[in-house]
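[Solved] Which block belongs to which protein?

Original post:
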Amino acid sequence: MSELRLFGIRHHGPGCARSLRAAFDAWAPTRVLVEGPPEADALLHHVPALVPPVAVLSHAADEPRRAVYNPFARFSPEWQALAWAAEHGVALQFIDLPQAHRLALPDEAEAADQDDAGDTPRADPLGALAQAAGFEDGEAWWNQQVEEREDAAGLFDAIAEAMVALRGAEPASNDSAEPAGAPTIDALREAHMRQCLRAARREGAERIAVVCGAWHLPALQLDAPGTPTAKADTALLKGCPKRKVSATWVPWTYRHLARASGYGAGVRSPGWYEHLWVTGGAQGRERAAGWLARVATLMRERDLDCSSGHLIEATRLAESLAAMRGRAAPGLDELTEATRAVLTMGDDTVLAFVRDALVVGDRLGEVPPDVPTVPLQRDLESQQKTLRLKPEALQKTLDLDLRQPGDLARSRLLHRLALLGVAWGQLAKVGRSARGSFHEVWQLQWQPEFALRLIEASRWGQTVEHAATACVAERCPTLPGLPELSKCVDDALLADLPDAVQAATYALQDRAALSGDVPQLLAALPALANVFRYGNVRQTDATLVAAVLDGLVLRAAIGLPLAAQALDDDAAGALREHVLAAHAALRLRSTPEGHAPQAAWQQALQQLADSTLAHPLLQGLALRLLLDDGLRDNSAAALAMSLHLSAGSDAAAAAAWLDGFLNRNATLLLHDATVWPLLDAWLAGLGEEHFIRVLPLLRRTFSAFGPGERRDLAARARQGVQAAAPTAAAAVDWPADKAALPLPWLRRWLGVPA
């Protein structure tokens, strides 16, 4: 009869992994059964070529969003079982409940994602043992007793005894042959695993090794009293719902293996666990010194002081703490406290990057090219190789010059992936803008879940370009307003997707034709105008976008004077932001004099500046924009200012007009000899009651000026009203031939054609 041995382990435990490997070497099983999704059995031949951390991704074929990851690290006992079986040519099989059943159960996809990597569905099943031993929680107890101990003789027998005691103390569950109500997911899983064990026995395997989460071990003892029969397990599994499931290997990261990543059943310190695995043969002192040496290397790379004396003292302190706590060797807690006290001098900021880089780690696994993937993922991998964009778990900066063909192609790929929801790169803020005319800075960091998003996106196409185009076309009708559609056009232009630009542009035209909402029309302009900022560098055709932009400008200009009436202060402030953004956007487009949309916009500003019904804030703003564009002169501005700031004007309305007219820029006050005395006379003529009402508004206006501008205003005030206006600097007679020398370089830097 076949000999069956159960090895109860903690998922992702280096101590368990080392002991399991030693037990396999000593016993030499002829068949290995591992808790894992049976759908991945066909993928097990890839194990020798995989570089952990990796994960089995199982997803519903008709609904890729319903998916489960089963991760494996280098120090995972299951991974070592897989690797040992592959090295020795031993039959290997996954025996957990198939994901075809689990993903068909109501709300099981989310629960399964946590349950598959944990030891148990309970929060802390080892809490009773930990409490009896004087530990804070079960994880700390397990780490010291199992993962960090040097002598692991009899480990699996002790684990089995402890789990039998814990399961025996649990209240009756649905593990019986006649379950009351619907069976729990644990009952279904354990029933299926028992059936797999019975099948392996019937097939005549000589020595069968079963690797499973320690919690399940008592339920898998086939010959123990009270274990459900094969008939009972068959009845329990009968009628279990089922759906079609696909599975593949995907790279994983230590960050996603950690609890802090949101993967609820991971481990808190995968980087530390890898250190335990690598230094498995070392004594406690050597292991502690090796860890602190890694901390020192990390600090020195950041130019932080860390001498050999620091390391000696930190090692001694960690050993003393371990001795005080009755531990044979320092663990992560003792090493962390020693690092804080000696190496970082109590600076938790330094300790934070030590935890991020070492305790958690940034390792990203690798999967061979012949692992089954969807065509979309293969296309992306091909482009990554061509463009030399290697996916990495560590965040890195990518500086692109869009005048270079290779950098332009990288930018287009990143923008296309963003449209598909694969946010591999984020545009970084450089100065005041995330983009220049020929310059983009990206922050890149690959996440394992992008593999699932690519599977989801494969319904739109088999290449990144086709999928992104179809995604935009499908999304346009669902977008809520004009600003979102305008941004969609901009995104499609950045991604160089002509068909997507056309689809989004037509949708924008159709929506704008039915909209009379002026703020929405104005909000749609900045994104469309971006193409005129760097369109030549990106080699995009702006003809269609220009027509849409002109139409939006005309509609907004017609409605602006009326939209500025009967507004409260908050609504006027919101409209002001839209007007400023739209005005700045129109400046990006070079148009001939008399161009209809530009003329209509200027006429709308003229009407707004002269209106008596519009909100004073918008009247003042319109006048300032006209003044800056040379469409009103200083004398007209002074006349309007004297009118709005006259003694008969309402003080609050006058302050609002002044806020709009100054437009958060003190240049006019500092350099126009007529504006300053008018403002001074208005303020001096205010009564006490009016001055108190106006003061908060004026303070808000002046607070928008920069510190340098406020200092200059104070100096000007000290000079008095009659101080002479600043004189213009004398004109310099530049030699024309010398002035022309830097022009070629300036054209190249600014991306302006000759």
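(Second protein starts here: sequence line, then its structure tokens.)
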Amino acid sequence: MGFEWMAEPAAWMGLATLIVLELVLGIDNLVFIAILADKLPPHQRDKARVIGLSLALAMRLGLLAGIAWLVTLTRPLFSVGPFEFAGRDLILLAGGLFLLFKATVELHERLEGSRHDQGKRLVYAGFGAVIAQIVVLDAVFSLDAVITAVGMVEHLEVMMIAVVVAMIVMILASKPLTRFVSAHPTLIILCLALLLMIGFTLVAEGLGFHIPKGYLYAAIGFAILIETFNQIALANRQRAERHRPLRERTADAVLRLLGARVEYEEAVADGPALSRADVHDQGDPLEAAFQPAERTMIRGVLNLAERQVTAIMTPRVDVHWIDLADPPEQIRRELVETPYSRIVVVRDGNSDDPLGVIQKKDLLSGLIAGQALDIEAQVRKPPVLPEFATVLAALERFKREPMQMAFVVDEFGSFTGLVTATDVMEAIAGEMPDEHEPVTAMMQRADDGSWAIDGRTDLDELVGRLGLELPGEPDYHTAAGLALEALGRIPEIGDEARVGEWLFRVEAMDGNRIDRLRAAPLQDGAAA
């Protein structure tokens, strides 16, 4: 073996070009080996990749050593009609058909899948069977690569060096490439589709139809470019998903396992209201196994440790109380007129620090016993929760306290609202009407697709029903809070604000408080 070629610049240029071309020609071989090796047990995959690529190297070097025999493969052996077949054509034809068959079977398995029963071991492919398939494909790809090398350069040494260098690079790249391909199912589908195209090309070559390699590589390059964009978009979605609270992501994952991503559904006579996520998943056969109320309760339970009591409490402005400084006649009238069984008691209008709570049944028991009405003696002090306490913390407190009610205070100790065990139950099971209030839903859907929304509607219910996507972690908990955040000021009746794909309009105010809203879907930038 002479080395005179080393003094020729053209030989070095040919070597560099041939190495690049051999790498390009070897990618399809490497991808197929990666897919086959993935069928083996994890501890055998590296071994299969190395053996497969080593056999490919040995085949290519052997074919280069027998160049004289290789030339005979291009001589016609027989003809069928207008088609003449040489040994190379038969090898390419057989390899192309095998590649078409194998890629089709792999696609079918990955698209259709097979049910794996729990408790049974996962069955892997046999090591010998996988190596045998690798050998068959190595023969086809090696023949194509060697014929390309013979047509490009004149020196046998240059061909062998290019093949060895390219194969060493492929062996080093095989493990990270296989790991990357296995971690991205869509990439595996793309690779199998490319193998189908390569198999079709080999069959065409075997039948005598020459397909310029540039067309093939341009198609492969374009497909890889599109898949690169797809992987970038997927990575961005996953990065955005990681910013969502862990418990919320867990809730979504559990709901997907249960068969649907329905967060909330209308439980009134006008029928169910489906969000965009519902439409996406309503064909799921598991959805029928779980009622909408069950899915709502699952989400509510999983969110108990994330939601603050301020999201479910009765705010101070809606709390009904009596003042011990008022005349006895006025106090009696208020006790008779109030529909509540438990009433907050204050003195001298000091609503920042209530005395406690009285229960009508306690007053009634004293009156029946012939005692004088003594409200202050019946005042009971409920437990106190800070406003940053979670709903789960409130539930734990109610489990230890006989009074199923708690005052909520801010960081300065001022009274901001009260929460009851019923509020906790509503956080799990959904809104339940009070016996003294008319039975009206917090959200009602109109025939035109718009929603009439009570300003006190819980933010989670609003987001679930309308399919809203809110940036970050909002520091408000109701529909009124959402409208205030969007408007940036105390609104007036008729004010409008766009939130996502919905247009919110203020329909009623109670002083500075938003009492009722109307949400209409946007179409082409205008309200429907």
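Accepted answer:
You had them paired correctly. Confirming on the second one: The radius of gyration is 37 Å.
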